[in-house]
Amino acid sequence: MTEVDVVVAHSERATLRVGDTFLKIDSDQERLDVEAEAMATAPVPTPQILWRKPHVLALAALPGTALGRLGTPSPASPAAWAAAGAVVRTLHDAPLPARPGQDVDAIRSHLDAECEWLVGTGVLPADLVARNRRVAETALRPSTPVFVHGDLQITHVFVAEDEVTGVLDWSEAAQGDAHYDLATLTLGHAEQLEHLLAGYGDGIDVDVVRAWWSVRSLRAARWLIEHGFDPNTPGAEFDVLRAAR
């Protein structure tokens, strides 16, 4: 009998797998609409949409395996990472989507609020938060917007035989900073950035990528904790913050 596998689940959304079908259930219908539109327009491999219902999107499983997981070494080869970089560059060179991203002032405001929460609740030491807030400022500068995935986690890029077979989870797709996608993909995997950029090409400031590691980790911590995830697991967000210089 085929079993139902809960891939991820929290109060906002859940993803289930039944055989070769993934069911994405989201309380926010707009996120599913954004995801479907992005997959239809992005010039990179994406899962096949099998059907859509209110608050549910059914997708076909992708061949291959994810580039890796946060907190464990990536099993993918340097060539696979380079292939991922080439795919991301194709996306970033595509015509802009209609959906605007957050502006720098909004990101800065949210970041400052999250830093205040982290220190005020004692979740992280004040000096660690302050150091990463200084690092983060490098990312908060004007940039030419590109078509970004918006949540390009390492588990969202699938590869087989050193080729990208598809990219998952497009609900945050919008206009944004190319460095943010590259930072999200290499979060906790700094050793893979060189390989990723070998496929991506020029035009990237590595210091800005590193700064986005701090921005993403600081901004995500409270959400992760409140939704039952642990950013303090080895190799995850808090280790990224501790490694920042």
Characterise the protein shown here.
The chain is of the alpha+beta class. The chain has one domain (64-243): Aminoglycoside 3'-phosphotransferase, Chain: A, domain 2. The chain is built from eight helices and ten strands. The protein has a five-stranded antiparallel sheet with strand order 1-2-3-5-4. A three-stranded antiparallel sheet has the order 6-8-9, with helices on one face. The chain has a two-stranded antiparallel sheet with strand order 7-10. A hairpin with a 3-residue loop joins strand 1 and strand 2. Helix 4 (126-136) packs across helix 7 (206-226) and helix 5 crosses helix 7 (206-226). The mean pLDDT is 94. Residues 37-205 form the Aminoglycoside phosphotransferase domain. InterPro entries: AGP_Transferase (IPR051678), Aminoglycoside_PTrfase (IPR002575), Kinase-like_dom_sf (IPR011009). Pfam families: APH. This is Phosphotransferase.
